[in-house]
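protein under study:
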Amino acid sequence: MKQIIFLFIGILMATQGRAQVSTADSLLAEQLYAKSDSFYQGTRICQRYLDSCIKLNPRMAKAWHEISVPYLKRGDFATWHYYMEKAVTLSPQTMLDVRGWCRFKFLRDYQGAMADLKRFDTLTHNGFRHTGDGSYCLYIVMALCERETGHYQQALRYFALGIDSLKKYNNQTPLGSYDYLHRAVLKLRMNDINGALADLSREGKVYPDLMETSYYKGIALTKLKKYPEARKAFNHASELLRTGFRMTDPYCEIHDTVYPEDISNRLQEIAAL
């Protein structure tokens, strides 16, 4: 432990007042960055290694980003923003999409997320790229941002890019697990019931036994006044709570997630009709 402390003190003394980054410092920063991966993310020792990387090479965008992540996961968004802003300034082509995704997922900052993702797409023309956790292509994130701010036509356009165009022009990249479901919810809001049912049918082929699919199918059928079929769909959703799958995330609620009380309330509404 004393050796580690002396290492950090030596790095601090060696880098104070230095404007240029030498090749030796840059190489040492890369070594320390690789070594930081040996420790649990967010631990004091891991953060010290990353802090040393930044002191050796203040232009190391990936170290600025990596040191920000534990603050994001702990809900310290102000500190996360400080480090993340440094990373984006240094390397917008590799960090704008990361910040945009985090703004969308953790902060529900849809306008900020859209600004980042549009700029990233302009710089890289790579909106088909998937998010850091691989759950969505960036066009789907942009579609959800537009949907949640009430811009439904723009949301449809981004869904078309993230689903239809991706399948046609970039079939090496897989669709996200919930892409059709999210678009179906948009179509329900737009009162395009048949379009919603078509997307829910497609979702069933991508992710069989997903509880939310049956739930939103029940809502669509209710809007069509097909009450027996709707009741069957809601009952199936209730069954899938025990035997199937539902949308979950260890950090945040996923958009369009359904809870047991949602199903119970819908079944009570159907019974009263």
Observations:
- The radius of gyration is 23 Å.
- Confidence is low (pLDDT under 50) at residues 9-18.
